[in-house]
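Sync notes, pocket subgroup
Present: LS, DG
LS reminded everyone that the earlier model was apo-only. Rerun requested with flavin-adenine dinucleotide included. Inputs:
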Amino acid sequence: MARPILLAVDDDASVLEAVVQDLRRQYGKTYRVMRAASGQAALDTLTQLKTREEPVALLLSDQRMPGMTGVEMLERARGLYPEACRVLLTAYTDTEAAIRAINSARIHYYLNKPWDPPEEKLYPVLNDLLEDWQAGYRPPFEGLRVIGHRWSLNDHRVRNFLSRNQVPYRWFDVAAGAEALKLLEDRQLDPQKLPVVLFADGAVLVDPDLEDLAARVGLRVQAAQDFYDLVVVGAGPAGLAAAVYGASEGLNTVVIEPVAPGGQAGSSSRIENYLGFPSGVTGAELGRRAHTQASRFGAEFVTQRATGMRVDGQYRFIQLADGREVSCHAVLLAPGVQYRKLEIPGGERLTGRGVYYGAALVEALACKGEEVYIVGGANSAGQAALHFARFAAKVTILVRGEGLSATMSKYLIDEIARTSNIVVEARTQVLEAIGDERLAALTLRGPSGEVQVPASSLFVFIGAAPVTAWLPPCILRDEKGFLLAGPDLRKDGKSPEVWHEKREPFLLESSVPGVFVAGDVRHGSVKRVASAVGEGSIAVQFVHQYLAGF
Ligand SMILES: Cc1cc2nc3c(=O)[nH]c(=O)nc-3n(C[C@H](O)[C@H](O)[C@H](O)COP(=O)(O)OP(=O)(O)OC[C@H]3O[C@@H](n4cnc5c(N)ncnc54)[C@H](O)[C@@H]3O)c2cc1C
């Protein structure tokens, strides 16, 4: 298999030689190091590599070059290799330009010259970037194949599950070519019973439920022990933070999560405002890193949905979808919120068949060259629009209000304005989703009246609500289902009737002692990654205090 390429670009031959030598010394075994003596030469090389379908992992370019600056080159290279890491080498005096380029050219990092010693100033940065690139890189395919129908909810679920759990697979759309039908025919499988998952060892799953699939791809679906100090429900930012702190501080911790670590943030194409990631981080990447970190400290992850909870003396039991239970002393509830449904005729029936909730990143490639509609005016809709604009011919954002300024962050509004294939339709609402087997058209009502537009994909971002009905009534919640914790439990200055302890509930403790709440599901929470991470971490401190009382 061809090694991925690191391309160094500099017009100064001696500097270029030095960069190439440093790259070879550290990365020569895993990557092929190439060089270009100008911006144009680099673009020519990349064009050739692209036609040969060779992978490029990193572009490391000098800024000041005659003819074309490093920023210009990196910006243009984005069109050829959007996933490659883009790093600028600058003189100290060019630092301002480099910081601006993080936005304009979406460079991932800038390094000041000289970079000696590389062990301190070059390799740590590149190691980090290349690790991220490797995580998203899919080498030529050797593994799992999914055969299905683009416009089927079950197919969408399977692909979404595999993508979110970072299980590499290749998808064959039965409607798109003979290859899919041939694969089915060879195995005498019924093309009416889809999706089908083919494993490298010849095993086959037909229309699998996600738990069977999870077990088959090697995800753990059963807890290793009967009893834990701490059970965390939900592996979004709040649950993952609790798992990292809990496990690193010696608590025997298990995390219950049916989909994949990352939570709602996992469906976010790029989180730009999380501290410490100046050029943004995808939610999936943040989830992957946190999952690795928590696992390294010994936290266990179980791919299951929590379906109930019961309390017996000082023991708490979390019931799982397969009927099993895990018991513990303390629980952290961090199941976040779920997207609100678009209540329009056709909306329910066409879900997964053209109508999607959240960014459904797995659909992005399938939308190549098409027109995509997005409903919603908040940041999540803006991020999705920018993501889809990379693949779709046109992205139309439909908002009920006057525009985006009241609901979306300025940095997203600015970037949308700079993206030529995104259109914002203000004062417009979706009335109906039309189609039999799949979404074919939308009825919209806008400033010029009602219109029907042809549409194949509609991504919905109209807010979210907690799903907490599975919890017992002793866990108190507000009228919308958000969980009450700490001071929010008090009414007229008094603790709730269900609270029988002599002490007051801790800050993030629910109405049941030892059961804590963190993140978006908590009444009054700030719906941000950073605050969910903060609450998850703080909750662990209260778990320690609670356990100390035993
Ligand atoms: C598209 C999008 C873009 C966003 N962009 C940003 C941004 O740029 N910056 C920012 O700060 N915030 C952003 N947010 C908000 C941010 O993602 C949330 O505030 C944050 O993820 C909340 O974390 P959480 O852990 O509380 O919940 P979640 O992230 O919702 O995670 C909850 C997890 O619990 C799991 N779960 C649910 N029910 C159960 C159950 N019964 N059993 C077991 N597990 C369960 C879910 O599968 C999920 O993985 C964005 C949100 C969305 C949807």
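DG: The longest helix spans residues 529-548.
LS: The first strand starts at residue 5 and ends at 9.
Action: DG to write up.
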